[in-house]
Design a protein that fits this description.
With 154 residues, this protein is mainly alpha-helical. It is 68% helix and 10% strand. It is built from six helices and two strands. The chain has helices at 9-41, 47-59, 64-71, 75-87, 109-130, 135-149; strands at residues 91-96, 99-107. It has a two-stranded antiparallel sheet with strand order 1-2. A hairpin with a 2-residue loop joins strand 1 (91-96) and strand 2. Helix 1 crosses helix 2 (47-59) and helix 3 (64-71) crosses helix 4. The longest helix has 33 residues, at 9-41. The relative contact order is 0.10.
Length: 154
């Protein structure tokens, strides 16, 4: 593929616009997969509840304020979702050992099972899309995405 034209800059601009379109398509596909995953996790919960559950699955029990910060939600919304998830027996809570007025929240056994099943289903969808890709293609995409998402300030 030729990357320059007589003007040079217009070809570069076209490539950058095409890249932007593909990134938007990737974000849209990711968002749609996240919505499906959230519905698979529990149909009676908002999608943000799955983000909380997935974070707890990866990092373990924590204070609601730490969860809110980690998933990028305000404390009030996080607290509401945690309450709903507790009422559905997806979360357990216990007093914080260093401050009995505070609680620590973690996934219940049912919550862990649901997250694991949802992640397995999500993985099947993702891997179905790349199953025919060569190892070279996977390595190249991984490298390029790493370059795109690296923190240039460090």
């Amino acid at each position: 593929m030729q990357t320059t034209s007589e003007g040079g800059k217009s070809s570069r601009l076209e490539l950058e616009l095409a890249l932007g379109e593909q990134i938007n398509a990737l974000l849209s596909a990711t968002r749609a997969l996240s919505e499906l995953s959230a519905a698979h996790f529990h149909a009676d919960l908002q999608p943000a509840a799955f983000h909380i559950a997935r974070w707890l699955y990866a990092f373990g029990p924590a204070r609601p304020s730490a969860i809110a910060e980690a998933v990028g939600m305000d404390r009030s919304s996080t607290s509401t979702l945690i309450g709903k998830m507790r009422s559905l027996d997806l979360l357990d809570s216990s007093p914080a050992p260093d401050d009995r007025r505070s609680i620590i929240v973690g996934l219940s056994e049912q919550g862990r099972r649901r997250v694991a099943a949802t992640l397995e289903e999500r993985g099947k969808e993702f891997y179905a899309r790349i199953q025919d890709w060569s190892e070279d293609d996977l390595a190249r995409l991984t490298e390029l995405l790493g370059r795109l998402t690296s923190d240039r300030s460090t």
